[in-house]
Fold GntR family transcriptional regulator.
Amino acid sequence: MSQAAARAYRALREDILNGLRPAGTRLREEQLAEEYGLSRTPVREAIRRLQADGLVQVVPNRGAEVVSLSPEDTEEIFGLRSMLESYAARNAALRGADVTRLRELCEAMEQQIARLDEGAADEAHDEITRLNMEFHRVIHEAGGRRLLPELLSRVIEVPLVRRTFHQYSTAELNRSFTQHRELADAIAAGDGDWAHAVMQSHVLAARATLLRSEPDEEETQ
């Protein structure tokens, strides 16, 4: 990949993951090239790579657009997450992970709860998303070598987490944070079975929240 294409890839990927280009947004090469100050060729190459990453889809008669996920797609993605992340958590407990960092991230996420009632809910959800991604990444990198973290990155970075946290009630957020604390405890204890069970429950709870919210989202579109 050329330097210009890599630049286009990073910029467009960040826009998608930050929610600046939501699901269904059409990706016109000419418009993107103008925005990024590039020619169309590196933009086209970046779109192809994002398609391989699962963040972009090509729709007949429409062209490239940010991927839209059906409830069936969501079920499949969270099924994969449940298997792969539980495996990573078990390995992280058996091999060891940076538990101090995990607990720091837990505390930082919990501190965002107060902002939800202070008129800064969007910012709080976005910060929780960033911290949550780092929390899971610490576990993935401890639980696998190169292949497992790469696989999980591709599955998780399809823009699900951001949407999920915006749908969480305060009670659901607190449940999620409690599970994070328990994951850190299980890993600190070196108990692979415990870590596996907590991670599986954690991912499946996130799936239930997202699937519950999807019908309402469709009605408003």
In short: The CA atoms of residues 80 and 155 lie 8 Å apart. The beta strands are 56-59, 63-66.
